Amino acid sequence: MAYDTLEIEHHGAVRRILLARDAQRNAQSQQMLDELMAAFDDAARDDTVNAVVLGGKGAHFSAGHDLKQAQAERADFTVEERWAYEELRYFDYSMRIWDFPKPTIAQVQGACVAGGFMIANMCDLVVAGESAYFSDPVGHTLGAAATEVLIHPWVMGARKAKEMLYTGGKLSAQDAHAIGMVNRVVPDAELGDAALALAQQIAKAPPFGLRLIKRSINRTLDAQGLRTALAAHFDTHQLSHLSEGFLTARDRGLASAIQKNPASA
């Protein structure tokens, strides 16, 4: 399948999927999200693929959802329309990455913001370049209750998650590594090779055993309430779209949040 917003690389038993709207800092348009799921589905069906690397072309992994498209196409959505759109493309698509039957590695450089933070942290492992930073400022910029999938406390702990979300601030690659959210930090020039080498090492293991290991670890988190908590937050996030803060941001123009957000600079 040919993609307009992705680039696909084949490295033996490793498939690398690259977000490829680098002129837009890999902002996630509807087309990109749909193509991303198609690419993951294709990798799941391909028995020659034992591991997947998710990265982004250019200087940034992803600056989040495409707010310019959201302003142009979805600013006047009804509650029902917004719920249906976000349940599919933001929540369900993210959980499909989380539940992907093969090991996944996020390869992150530059901005990993909001929707970018969300999909990177759906992956099993994260390898970051030294330039990488992580942020979810939408409580400040959009008046929304974080992103649609509140993976934050599960990957960084409750206190750091509160600090990030309360302040709208950034977390460096080094700080993310120190709290265990990032597995490895490498120089940017070595990022692609480092992520690929890790994926190739993983891909040497028998794939069915890896699938069972991943399922068991994810079920451990489910037993602690992860899936229920994420689903509950999605409902809360939808409620925040009716708040005065969000409606003010919408009327001002969702796209202006890009300029307001210092983490996207």
UniProtKB/TrEMBL annotation:
One example GO MF annotation: enoyl-CoA hydratase activity
Presence of the UniProt keyword Chloroplast in the record: no
Domain of life: Bacteria
Record's keyword terms, sorted: Lyase
Pfam families: ECH_1
EC numbers on record: 4.2.1.17
Entries under InterPro entries matching the protein: ClpP/crotonase-like_dom_sf (IPR029045), Enoyl-CoA_hydra/iso (IPR001753)
Homology family: Belongs to the enoyl-CoA hydratase/isomerase family.
NCBIfam families attached to this UniProt entry: PRK08290.1
Protein name, as recorded: Enoyl-CoA hydratase
